[in-house]
Design goal:
The protein is mostly helical. 61% of the residues lie in helices and 2% in strands.
């Protein structure tokens, strides 16, 4: 207990709320020297600090989140949560390479958690546009003991559909339906809303073409033609644009 308290104290002393400063992340060697052999408890403390740091909203860049997650994994290489969380969240905040590195470490050290290869495959599909590595890690997911049936179906069917957006939606549906992490669940929900808006705008653009024999020049044309009352706001604050040649919607 004294070891856990001392480790938590080391983390807490790095925090300075007024004004906020990015925390100094201690090296695993220093933590291990102070935790009296309770490396697993120290990893738990690092993991909790990572969640508080990311979820608290004090940092505008979340630049230290990779350091927190790598620290937790260094202290306890068998601790699955930091790998899974980092594999999914780090790429979404512009730390794609760090997320991939952490996830690969997790795949090597944790053999019975389907989330790590699944989220890694998602990153290769979504952030790297790398179907070869995506298929590799989806295959690992499908063969991981205890993988939910829905996730196994998405993994085994990867590559069978030509529509990348539809494949991506199925991936996020699988994440939304299986995760117990509220941060991950909220992120998955926002991605699904994002793609639903894109589908809606695609359909509206096609309807505009049926009426006017040409695609709209801009999104406001859909409102002026009374096809849509308004352009739904994207949950990530992204802006959409239309391709006047084929009416497809993309992100600016």
């Amino acid at each position: 207990m004294a070891g856990v308290v001392s480790v938590q104290y080391l983390f807490d002393t790095q925090k300075n709320k007024l004004p906020f400063r990015e925390p100094l992340i201690l090296k695993p060697e220093i933590i291990k020297a102070a935790d009296l052999g309770l490396d697993n408890a120290a990893a738990d403390a690092a993991w909790l600090s990572a969640i508080q740091y990311f979820g608290g909203g004090e940092s505008r860049t979340s630049e230290k989140l990779p350091d927190y997650l790598f620290l937790a994994s260094d202290l306890d290489p068998k601790f699955a949560y930091p790998y899974a969380f980092g594999a999914l969240v780090l790429p979404s905040i512009k730390f794609t390479d760090e997320g991939i590195e952490l996830a690969k470490k997790g795949v090597e050290n944790v053999k019975n958690d389907w989330r790590i290869p699944y989220y890694l495959a998602t990153t290769y599909h979504l952030n790297k546009d790398d179907p070869v590595n995506a298929a590799k890690y989806f295959d690992i997911t499908a063969n991981t003991p205890g993988v939910p049936d829905g996730i196994k179906k998405v993994s085994t069917r990867y590559g069978s559909k030509s529509d990348k957006r539809e494949q991506t939606k199925q991936i996020w549906i699988g994440i939304y339906e299986t995760t117990n992490d509220e941060i991950v669940k909220e992120r998955a929900k926002n991605y699904l809303i994002h793609f639903e808006i894109m589908d809606l705008l695609d359909q509206a653009s096609k309807q505009y073409y049926k009426i006017n024999k040409k695609y709209p020049a801009e999104l406001n044309d859909l409102i002026n033609a009374r096809i849509l009352k308004a352009i739904p706001p994207d949950p990530f604050g992204l802006e959409f644009e239309l391709n006047q040649e084929d009416g497809t919607v993309s992100v600016k």
